[in-house]
Amino acid sequence: xxxxxxxxxxxxxxxxxxxxxxxxxxxxxxxxxxxxxxxxxxxxxxxxxxxxxxxxxxxxxxxxxxxxxxxxxxxxxxxxxxxxxxxxxxxxxxxxxxxxxxxxxxxxxxxxxxxxxxxxxxxxxxxxxxxxxxxxxxxxxxxxxxxxxxxxxxxxxxxxxxxxxxxxxxxxxxxxxxxxxxxxx
Length: 185
Fold this sequence. Notes:
Blueprint: H1 2-5, H2 27-32, E1 36-39, H3 44-51, E2 64-68, E3 76-79, H4 85-98, H5 156-168, H6 173-180
Antiparallel strand pairs: 1-2, 2-3
């Protein structure tokens, strides 16, 4: 319903998935989404789920994509932009450096015990204003922080996963599966 009537009122939907599946991207959804973009996928089946035809499995990645527009029956190969993670980090650091200092009255609703609302605007290791000396140093860099313990169910992988995400600053499912050597559910 939303897919069908949303363009009429100026709402545009973007449906994205790491692993395309016919259970998720149903025929009804595909019928009501006028344009499709497919980045590099691992198999012919994945390409058929997205585009209803092969092609996306032969893409090279790094912004390479196939676009199937509403008025076209065959996809067009397009080079989208590709931004390396180092470039993203550099831009975020620049924004943080340019951000003004916050005062307590600007952080209404922030959890001043942890400074969560302002942690991204304060350089690593610096005290967070109004947080009573709390810094935004990641737990992996704080030598006094104890590693997370297993939860009540005894899931020791949870603590390892939390440490991994904090250390690498990445939290993708595939990365956790590779590093922790666990299979797909």
